[in-house]
Amino acid sequence: MQYYSTNGKAPKADLKKAVVKGLAEDKGLYMPERIEKLPKAFFDDIQGMRFQDIAFNVAANFFGEDVDMDGLSDLVFDTLSFDCPVVKVEENIYALELFHGPTLAFKDVGARFMARLLGYFTRNSRNNKKGQLINVLVATSGDTGSAVANGFLGVEGIHVYVLYPKGKVSKIQESQFTTLGQNITAIEVDGVFDDCQALVKAAFMDEELNKHMRLTSANSINVARFLPQAFYYFNAYARMKALGKSDELVMCVPSGNFGNICSALFGHEMGLPVKRFIAANNANDVFYQYLQTGKYEPKASIQTLANAMDVGDPSNFARILNLYSQNGKYSAEETHQRITSLISGATYSDEQIRETMRQCYKTTGYVLDPHGACGYRALKEGLQAGEVGVFCETAHPAKFKDTVDSILGTDIEIPERLAAFMKGEKQSVELPKDFQTFKAYLMKQVCKR
Ligand SMILES: *Cc1c(COP(=O)(O)O)cnc(C)c1O
C-alpha cells in the first residue's frame, strides 16, 4: 500500500517509510491510498469473534500487503494482550473501556503496535547493514510518554528518549517512564511541555544530528499509531451486536488531537455500520466551532481537568478534511456538509465535567474520569429516540485519582499495575532547555546496534 501526503507536495511512501519518517517531506500527514470495505461475511459473523481476531482482519485490510500474515498475526496478538470491554452504564449508554493496557491509557494499543511494526521492519530489513539503531524522540506532558515508553520497552533495535517537563507531571505518570531502564531513557527538562516539544522539533531539523543518528517520532500523526485504534470500534460493534443493540449505534469519542476518532472514521469507511459519531471536547472547542461555522480557526490551548484533550490545533484534523474531501475532490463547503452529516460535536467546561462526574456516579455508580465524562455527557444530551450510544472511557480514573477523589468524595483504588510502577527506582537525565546541550548529549550516544 502506498501512502500520500495530505499536503499533496511530497512523493508517495510505502508503509515502512511512512512509519519510520512519521511526517511527509512537505509536513503533511500520510494517508493510505485506498480504504477497502471489509466483506459482508465479516460483519455477519463478527459478534462471535474475539477482539484479537477482529483486529487481525482489520489490520490485514491496511497492512496485509506490507507485512506477511504470520508477522502480522504475531504483531496483533502481541499488541492486544488485554481486552477492551463494553460496560453498560445505564439504559442505552455503554462505556467502551480502553484503559486496560499496561499504562491504563488507550494510547497503549497504538504505541505497542507501532513499536512492534518498527521492530518487524528493522528485523526484516536487508539494507540495514550498518546496524543503525532507530531512535524515537517523544515529548510528553504525561500520558503519551508512558504509553510510548512501555510500548517500546525491550524492542530490539530501537531506543526511546522521553522528554518531559521537570516537576510538571504527576508522580504516577513520571514513574511510568522513569523506572523502566533498558532501551528507555527519560530526560527531565528544566522547562515546560512546550520546551520539550521544541527540543524534539529542533532535533528533527538538525542536519548534523540526523547524520549521527536515525531519528523518528511516535505521536499520533504516525500511521502506525493512529490506524490500529480502529480495532476498538469493530470490537465495540461486535459486542453491541451480540447484545442486539447495534441497529442505530452512535459512537462518541472524547477527542484532543483527533487521532482516536479519526481511526473510527476510517473504520466507518471500511464499512463499520455505525449510524453517526460525536466528537466530545472539553473547553478546547476548535473542532466544535468548525462544525458550526465551516471555519477552522486554531487557537492556543486552554488548561482543563481533561488535560490529555487540551489541544488548540488538533493535528489529525488535516486527515479528517482530506478523507471527506476525497483528497480535494469536494469543495470546502461540500466537505463541511459531508462531515456534519456524519459527525456532531459537544464542548464542556470544567464545571460541566465535575457536574457530570457527580451525576453519573450518584445515579449509576459508574466512576468516570474527566475525559470519559465529556463522552458520557455528549451521549446523554445528544441521543435520539431509538439510538444506542457507546462512549470511549479513555483513561482509568485512578490515573487522575486526586481530581476524581476530590470531585466525587471517593478514595478510588490504584490498580496493582499502576502501583507497581511507583515501587521502581527513578532514573533520569536532567538537562536544561537549550538545544545545544540536548544536541551535545545526543551526539555522545552510541547509535550502533
Ligand atoms: C490522548 C487522550 C485523549 C485524546 O485522544 P486523541 O486521539 O488525541 O483525540 C483523550 N483521553 C485521554 C485519556 C488521552 O490520553
Offer a few descriptive terms.
alpha/beta; 449 residues; binds pyridoxal-5'-phosphate; 6-stranded mixed beta sheet; 5-stranded parallel beta sheet
Description of the molecule:
The chain starts with a strand and ends in a 6-residue tail after the last helix. It is globular and about 65 Å long. The protein has helices spanning 15-21, 40-45, 51-63, 69-79, 107-123, 143-152, 171-178, 193-205, 207-212, 223-226, 230-242, 259-269, 286-293, 317-324, 332-340, 350-364, 370-382, 401-408, 416-423, 435-443, and strands at residues 2-5, 13-14, 30-32, 86-90, 93-97, 134-139, 158-165, 184-189, 214-217, 249-254, 276-281, 343-347, 388-393, 429-431. It is built from 20 helices and 14 strands. The protein is an alpha/beta fold and 449 residues long. Strand 1 and strand 2 form a beta hairpin. 44% of the residues lie in helices and 15% in strands. The strands form 3 sheets. The chain has a 6-stranded mixed β-sheet, sandwiched between helices. Pyridoxal-5'-phosphate binds next to helix 12.
How would a textbook summarize the main sheet?
Answer: 6 strands, mixed
Task: Give the cofactors and ligands.
Answer: pyridoxal-5'-phosphate
The number of strands is: 14
Identify low-pLDDT runs: none
The number of helical elements comes to 20
Question: Which range best describes the helical content: under 10%, 10-25%, 25-40%, 40-55%, 55-70% or over 70%?
Answer: 40-55%
The radius of gyration computed from the alpha-carbon positions, rounded to a whole number of angstroms, is: 21 Å
The strand order across the widest sheet is: 4-5-13-10-11-12
Molecular shape: globular
What is the straight-line distance between the termini?
Answer: 29 Å
Instruction: Give the structural class.
Output: alpha/beta
Mean pLDDT: 94
What share of residues are in beta strands?
Answer: 15-25%
